[in-house]
Write a structure and sequence with these properties.
This protein is of the alpha+beta class and 178 residues long. Helices cover 61% and strands 16% of the residues. The protein is built from 8 helices and 4 strands, in the order ααααααβαβββα.
Length: 178
């Protein structure tokens, strides 16, 4: 993604500032609100990315839409406007939430399953993450019917493949070698 390194730098700076002011959790809630608002509203997303709309207009719209947010969040919008980086707002918000989760001792676990995770499956996956990494995790579930069953778990640079499709491939390789 274009601007990801810049988004990480902004997110780290905002997290440090929010921690200094003991409002990191409130800013995290604001960032989640921003992510959801931009994802759910195509007009807002196109406004942020439009080269035709002036930065002042974008700032005014963002301040109106996110009027009830923390002063730090409002300050972020101002800084992004000054630096002509408003299109990075969604990426900054996403990076902030990831950095906040890490600072709270959580990590993101990506789980691919053939069907949506049930509460029981979710608990088992969380237990597997804890076993593999020794840390708590937040799970993001992706559905991919091609794995047939089981799951594929990715945490950081670690991948655990317990899918039926993977087991079939292992059997196929074993039979082809013999």
């Amino acid at each position: 993604m274009k601007g990801t390194r810049a988004a990480i730098r902004y997110a780290k700076a905002i997290l440090d500032l929010a921690k200094d002011q003991n409002s990191a959790a409130a800013v995290n809630d604001d960032m989640k609100l921003i992510i959801n608002a931009i994802a759910d509203n195509k007009e807002l997303k196109s406004l942020l990315n439009s080269p035709v709309v002036k930065a002042e207009q974008k700032t005014a719209v963002l301040k109106e839409v996110f009027a009830n947010t923390n002063a730090i969040t409002t300050g972020l919008v101002d800084v992004l406007a000054e630096n002509k980086r408003i299109p990075l707002l969604e990426a900054v918000a996403t990076e902030y939430t990831s950095l906040f989760d890490v600072s709270q001792g959580f990590q993101k676990a990506y789980v691919t399953t053939a069907v949506a995770l049930t509460d029981d499956m979710n608990t088992k996956v969380l237990a597997k993450v804890k076993e593999l990494t020794g840390k708590e995790a937040l799970i993001e579930n992706t559905i991919d019917e091609s794995i047939l069953g089981g799951f594929i778990l990715r945490v950081g640079d670690l991948q655990y493949n317990a899918s039926i499709a993977n087991n079939f491939n292992k059997l196929r390789r074993t039979f082809s070698q013999n």
